[in-house]
Amino acid sequence: MNELRNDCFALPPGVNWTPVDEALERLRSRLHPVVGVDRAVPLAQLNGRLLASDVYAPRAHPPSSNSAVDGYAFAGPITQVPCVMPLVEGRSAAGAPYTGQVPEGHAIRILTGAVMPTGTDTVVLEEDCEVTDQQLHLNGTLKAGANCRQAGEDIKARERILTAASRLTPTQIAVLASVGVEAVDVYQRLRVGVLSTGDEVKPVGAPVTDWQIYDANHPMLSALVTRLGYQVVDLGHVRDRAEEVQAALERGAAQCDLILTSGGISAGDEDHVSKTLQAHGDISNWRIAIKPGRPLALAMFQGTPVVGLPGNPVAAWVCALRFGTPAMALLAGGEWFEPQGYDLPANFSKRKKPGRSEMLRARIRQGQVEVFGSEGSGRVTGLAWSEGLVELDEGARQIEPGTPVRFIPYSSFGL
Ligand SMILES: Nc1nc2c(c(=O)[nH]1)N[C@H]1C(S)=C(S)[C@@H](COP(=O)(O)OP(=O)(O)OC[C@H]3O[C@@H](n4cnc5c(N)ncnc54)[C@H](O)[C@@H]3O)O[C@H]1N2
Ligand code: MOO
């Protein structure tokens, strides 16, 4: 794989306040897959993995024409009723096909999933006919091919069934199994380092005093990474000391394809992530027109991209979803994506300054979008309460109950 360029995140001269769409487009254009390929990974290990090459069907599905119902098979159509046909001896069952030929004008007992015997192409449901004295009585017409599943109607042999860069789902794994694919090539899991920073931040379990807070971002971001199917590299927590931040980033660069940091990225005296990246890497501080999450640092550190998320948990979550998830997908060999949302009426009022897009914690109840009562960027309860985000674009000013707003469920980010 090609390495990323050191200055890949640099902003064009004079740009300092970037609309969300532009920021996303810029990210998209500068990233590419950085992971290797695991060859011939068996079906049982494919859930959530990213396909590295297109897959073609080694055989058709279904492989033979077969009956969709329990009933009687014959050569269709039936256009004139009542119709009486003699039944041949024997039957065709799933796993025990009838090997003889059914003569013209005759019918045969058939069960669901059984191969259509030679001489038949149509099946009548057993509820829609009568059998007396080895004779089949039909009282309704039937089209030729009724209740019969044609060989290859779902998948033809050698047809492309899945395309490279798809994230394999349980249902796609079923497609692979249906045509007998035992193993496929997938991208190696993206290794994502998670690092928390801040003198006031302490890992859960450590002793704390009143001026210290527990680290909420590390477990949240680690769970996000795992949920997306990537591998978490725990870079732990460091204090606001340039040398500690640098050492952690060095460990990360040696072990990871991407590093997610939180905190210490704005321009404060103790914002050592941005300072360290400035001194030893190639940083671009993107002031994105989004709330929450105005400061977002994108940097290259010793060849590894670093996404510097804001420290406030809500801003860290929103930025990790909005910018991190498509970026990670692209680096991991998947496709860049624009999370799909839908417009639903708001059940709230809100006044908004134009010029910045806003992402609110939201959920749907009774077909309407409700938002969390507080927009405070440190309110973790609103994160847990929410089932998605409302995205109000840069131009929005006033939302009233009934105004359509764009709701993006968390599932649209791959969760
Ligand atoms: N003069 C300015 N000050 C600030 C600005 C600004 O534009 N000008 N932006 C504000 C916004 S918005 C945010 S967001 C923060 C981002 O700053 P940092 O990324 O440097 O974050 P910190 O200052 O380190 O932390 C912010 C906040 O979050 C808490 N935090 C940090 N890490 C964690 C964690 N792992 N778990 C839970 N909470 C965490 C931290 O204690 C702070 O309260 O800057 C504003 N200031
Ligand atoms: O990113 Mo800050 O948390 O917008 O509030």
From TrEMBL:
Record EC number: 2.10.1.1
GO biological process: Mo-molybdopterin cofactor biosynthetic process
Reactions it catalyzes: adenylyl-molybdopterin + molybdate = Mo-molybdopterin + AMP + H(+)
Pfam families, A to Z: MoCF_biosynth, MoeA_C, MoeA_N
Gene Ontology terms, MF aspect: metal ion binding; molybdopterin molybdotransferase activity
Keyword Endoplasmic reticulum: no
GO cellular component: cytosol
Summary of the function given for this chain in its UniProt record: Catalyzes the insertion of molybdate into adenylated molybdopterin with the concomitant release of AMP.
Record protein name field: Molybdopterin molybdenumtransferase
Species assigned in the record: Pseudomaricurvus hydrocarbonicus
